[in-house]
């Protein structure tokens, strides 16, 4: 998978309704109605989208241990552009063409400005290297999200079936059916039937 082969479509769309992009018992990512979207293309196939509007990320990063619950859930409002790779066909069913008024409301004088912002975000994402986590690629059943954070970097969420990986500025969370790992600035917690907490 060569990230430099990715490009953007030329047409800007918008969501026709509030849409859940990802949902499991561990959390969800959703976008609001009228969120702008542009296709991410690989070899003439739509592999995902770049969105800009109002969204929300919820993620249960609490680990249950014998000493009690460790960690706090992630709850973030998403008002900056972000990338989603995967699930493109189903997501596209909730999109229609965006108008000049839709673009202006989001702060873009025209579609070229939104395309340029999307290209800049995709380039930053590609510089992080090739991401391979089990089936989490836009060619498989998994999903990859990249969100801008306060530090000017990208937080990553990779999800495939019951497996979730979340990497943010101060948190790393990995969960599957067998094991859960939570790493923060203060501790590392590992749970796989038994639990170990190491303070840093």
* Rounded radius of gyration (Å): 18 Å
Number of strands: 18
What best-fitting shape do the alpha-carbon axes yield?
Answer: elongated
- Measured between the Cα atoms of the first and last residue, the distance is 36 Å
The SSE order reads: EEEEEEEEEEHEHHEEEEEEE
Class by helix and strand content? mainly beta
Strand order of the largest sheet: 11-1-4-5-10-12-13-14-15-16-17-18
Please bin the fraction of helical residues: 10-25%
Largest sheet: 12 strands, antiparallel
**Integer average pLDDT:** 87
What does this molecule look like?
By secondary structure, the chain is mainly β. The protein has one domain (3-166). It has helices at residues 88-92, 100-105, 111-126; strands spanning 7-15, 19-24, 27-31, 36-42, 45-52, 55-59, 63-65, 68-70, 74-78, 82-85, 95-97, 143-148, 154-160, 163-167, 172-175, 180-183, 187-191, 195-199. It is elongated.
Could you outline the blueprint of secondary structure elements for this entry?
Layout: E1 7-15, E2 19-24, E3 27-31, E4 36-42, E5 45-52, E6 55-59, E7 63-65, E8 68-70, E9 74-78, E10 82-85, H1 88-92, E11 95-97, H2 100-105, H3 111-126, E12 143-148, E13 154-160, E14 163-167, E15 172-175, E16 180-183, E17 187-191, E18 195-199
Antiparallel strand pairs: 1-4, 1-11, 2-3, 3-6, 4-5, 5-10, 6-9, 7-8, 10-12, 12-13, 13-14, 14-15, 15-16, 16-17, 17-18
